[in-house]
Amino acid sequence: MRHFLTLKDYTKNEILEMLELASKIKIETKNRIFKDYMPKCTLGMIFEKSSTRTRVSFETGIYQLGGIGLFLSSNDIQLGRGEPMSDTSRVISRMVDMVMIRTFEQSKIEEFAKHSKVPVINGLTNEYHPVQLMADYLTIQEAGLDKDLVVAYIGDGNNLAHSWLMLASKLGFELRIATPKNYEVNQDILEQALEFAKESGAKITISNDPKEAVKQATVVTTDTWVSMGQEDEKEKRIKDFAGYIVDNDMMNMAANNAIFLHCLPAYRGYEVSEEVIESSQSLVFQEAENRLHAQKGIMVWLNNQVNQEKTK
Ligand code: CP
Ligand code: NVA
After folding, report:
1. What was the pLDDT predicted at 21?
2. What was the pLDDT predicted at 312?
């Protein structure tokens, strides 16, 4: 049973296959052609953290594929009152066809997947946000920037940075991550990415120098300085991230045709300036829409795997 918990578990070909499916279904969707790729399938969507894009894109996506989404906020299900992840998984996965979870530690989603009878998709954990990266790469492909790609990630060494590490090291592009001191990426995840990079040819650089990282980059990206669950550290983080705002000065150091990406929600005046996010270089709303399309590609791909297993 294949789950989609991190890009670490996927080959370059598999990632590109899912994206190809996503592009194909996107064109159909734009023409209002809705094929029943997943007829009568139910997607359980468990949320232990807030969401705008993840919830709307998964719920809309599964509906457009011929199925239905169940929004399960942990405040409303017994998980929030202490029912174990393993029991929740064994119950829900007997009733639905696929599960998406947004939670805290990656170990929680792994625990759920271990007990699940159906594919589990990571809708964000403290460590990773793989579905976001699929939408980001689809946006990069659409912008025609997937050849000679150089991505500069400026900001926190968080779940987004880790997912960029996985994507770059699997697909083999150049990634430069610049974080403030003490906000570096997780060392184990970095080492794993460097291992994958040996095979893919990815060039990965880690520094505390955003200006160096952004030089001639073709994609500039960042994320909030205060992730969900870090609200108490807000004041300290704002001080520590001084100099890491992606503003016009920063974008001017990137390549002329560079684009700006942000998973959203964005905090203007902190990690990105108003001018940059509202500029013509910013593709953040196309990127947000691509959550819908990329995730449809992922769901259909996983569902195809399940169907193939059944016929074996
Ligand atoms: N980018 C993203 O995952 O957005 P939401 O938190 O709104 O789902
Ligand atoms: N790093 C952010 C991403 C939000 C989509 C967080 O985890 O809150």
Report:
1. 98
2. 85
pTM for this model (two decimals): 0.98
- Residue 116 inside a domain? The answer is yes
What domain range is 202 assigned to? Answer: 144-282
Does 189 fall in a domain? Answer: yes
Distance from C-alpha of 142 to C-alpha of 176, rounded to nearest angstrom: 22
Q: Tell me if 111 is assigned to some domain.
A: yes
The contacts of residue 280 (CB under 8 Å, 6+ apart) are none
Q: Give the ligand with the smallest distance to the CA of 135.
A: 1
Is 118 touching ligand 2 by the criterion CB < 6 Å? Answer: no
Beta carbon of 156 within 6 Å of any ligand 2 atom: no
- Residue 63 confidence (pLDDT) above 90: yes
Residue 31: Cβ-neighbour burial (10 angstroms; 0-12, 13-18, 19+):
exposed
Residue 21 CB–ligand 1 contact under 6 Å: no
Are 149 and 251 members of one domain? Answer: yes
Report whether residue 29 contacts ligand 2, using a CB cutoff of 6 Å. no
Please tell me the distance between residue 312's alpha carbon and the centre of ligand 2 in angstroms.
Answer: 39
Task: Tell which atom from ligand 1 comes closest to the C-alpha of 56.
Answer: 8
Same domain, 189 and 148: yes
Catalytic site residues?
102, 129, 132, 223, 263, 291
CB of 37 within 8 A of CB of 25? yes
Domain of residue 90, CATH code: 3.40.50.1370
**What is the pLDDT of the chain when averaged over all its residues?**
98
